[in-house]
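Input (structure):
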């Protein structure tokens, strides 16, 4: 059986009478690209914050990398990488300074930071830009650099929150090539997005509607189940069904 690196059971986050996350349950396997899909406000980011150890759930259970979200949040943080939907590097530092800084934050041994940094710059084609301020880079390069820094310490899991927002289609495709490479190396990728076409790039997807998991399966099986041509059609049917059941 595949190793499960994320396990959620009836996970709930409530703010007063509002349920941002409502009894969601799922497992994520090691090395899997797991899509967490839904419209804005569906509860994706709230759930991700819980799994990253940044917020406590109201009820339910969850383990990430073998650690409990209630009692072992700091251990979770040491075993994950994270890239937010907004650009997450320091624009007033150079490319090299950002890499060095986050290498230190992630406690990569000093002797390894230089070696890994040189390899990363060469891989991204940024060796000649190492001393350039990050704020001067095009958005697509910023996003690819941010992802590379998020996995610089070789975490077990990387959480990506709307990572391709605002970039052009070609850059989005290149970004996903980087995700495939990370997954092939054994890093589990947990990615939230509201771009339904990106579901096609995932091994499995969960579709969130109003804080609930309405579907979970491989994209091909979901399309077959809902007799849909694409994931947009699947999401539309699920959202419409959820709205009707709430009327």
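Output (sequence):
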């Amino acid at each position: 059986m595949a190793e499960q690196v994320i396990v959620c059971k009836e996970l709930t986050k409530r703010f007063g009478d509002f349920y941002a996350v409502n009894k969601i349950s799922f497992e994520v396997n090691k090395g899997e690209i797991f899509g967490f899909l839904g419209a804005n406000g569906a509860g994706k980011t709230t759930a991700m914050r819980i799994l990253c150890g940044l917020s406590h759930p109201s009820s339910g259970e969850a383990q990430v990398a073998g650690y409990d979200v209630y009692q072992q949040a700091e251990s979770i943080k040491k075993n994950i990488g994270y890239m937010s939907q907004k650009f997450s590097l320091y624009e007033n530092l150079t490319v090299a300074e950002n890499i060095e800084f986050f290498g230190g934050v992630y406690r990569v041994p000093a002797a390894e930071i230089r070696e890994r940094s040189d390899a990363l710059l060469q891989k991204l084609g940024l060796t000649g830009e190492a001393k350039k301020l990050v704020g001067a880079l095009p958005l697509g390069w910023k996003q690819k650099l941010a992802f590379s820094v998020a996995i610089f310490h070789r975490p077990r899991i990387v959480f990506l929150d709307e990572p391709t927002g605002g970039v052009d289609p070609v850059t989005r495709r290149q970004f996903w090539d980087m995700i495939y490479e990370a997954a092939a190396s054994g890093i589990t990728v947990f990615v939230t997005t509201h771009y339904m076409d990106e579901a096609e790039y995932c091994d499995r997807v969960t579709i969130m509607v109003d804080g609930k998991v309405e579907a979970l399966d491989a994209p091909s099986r979901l399309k077959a189940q809902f007799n849909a041509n694409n994931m947009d059609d699947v999401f539309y049917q699920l959202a419409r069904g959820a709205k009707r059941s709430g009327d």
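Notes: Strands lie at 4-15, 18-29, 33-37, 59-64, 67-68, 80-83, 157-161, 188-193, 204-209, 212-217. The first strand starts at residue 4 and ends at 15.
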